[in-house]
Design goal:
- The protein is mainly alpha-helical.
- The protein has a single domain, classed as Intergrase catalytic core (hpI Integrase, Chain A).
- Helix content is 51%, strand content 10%.
- It is built from 10 helices and 5 strands; from the N terminus they run H-H-E-E-E-H-E-E-H-H-H-H-H-H-H.
- The chain has helices at 2-7, 11-15, 46-59, 85-102, 112-125, 130-137, 142-151, 153-163, 169-173, 184-190, and strands spanning 22-23, 29-33, 39-43, 73-76, 79-82.
- The strands form 2 sheets. A 3-stranded antiparallel β-sheet has the order 1-2-3, with no helix packed on it.
- Strand 1 (22-23) and strand 2 form a beta hairpin.
- Helix 6 (130-137) packs across helix 7 (142-151).
Length: 194
């Protein structure tokens, strides 16, 4: 789940990762193969690198950095096989339910694509330009990425506050306190009751 959130990768892209696709050098990154077999390089943050190293040490202890073994796998008939999307969805749903019991803010339906959306919104809210987010997510068309710009009302609110500073003459007209009405007769007239 951490990997999905930190990379914004699709579940299929994540499950297709082989050990050889990860580079831990000076500029850690992972190569993802997306739709249409297009590849893209995604930087890995330090905390993600640390988690991956621990994971690899436990689950891939005897394998080298050029291994074609899948990073995330299941064992069937005594052999490591690529984890299926259904396996991943089931695990994520299971842990989402457990997390929701401890924290009511966790959505009811936790699914792999939720982490991709969360990653994109986090990047956007941090000021990353939409063209870079589009490349990050592997979108072929920038319009696909625009959904994140339309979805974020908090950024819109901040933009309005920045565009209309409080110390300008226009700022006093946006003050909601100015429109407070506590006269019963005026309220009734406004509502058409008088």
């Amino acid at each position: 789940m951490l990997f999905l959130f930190k990379t914004g990768a699709r579940i299929q892209e994540t499950l297709d990762i082989q050990l050889r696709d990860i580079q831990f050098g000076k500029h850690p990154r992972v190569m993802l193969t997306g739709k249409g077999s297009k590849t893209r390089s995604i930087p890995l943050r330090e905390n993600t690198v640390q988690h991956l190293k621990k994971y690899i040490k436990i689950f891939h202890a005897d394998e080298g950095i050029y291994s074609e073994s899948y990073l995330f796998y299941t064992v069937r008939n005594g052999m490591k096989k690529r984890m299926t999307e259904d396996n991943a969805r089931g695990l994520i749903r299971k842990y989402g339910i457990k997390a929701r019991k401890k924290c009511a803010e966790v959505p009811e339906n936790v699914h792999p694509h939720l982490f991709r959306h969360s990653c994109a919104m986090s990047l956007y809210q941090s000021g990353v330009h939409l063209t870079l987010i589009s490349e990050w997510l592997g979108h072929a068309n920038l319009e696909t990425t625009l959904v994140y710009a339309h979805a974020d009302t908090e950024i819109k609110r901040k933009a309005i506050e920045k565009a209309i500073p409080k110390d300008t003459p226009l700022g006093e007209h946006t003050n909601a306190e100015r429109y407070k009405i506590d006269d019963e007769d005026v309220l009734k007239q406004l509502c058409g009751l008088r």
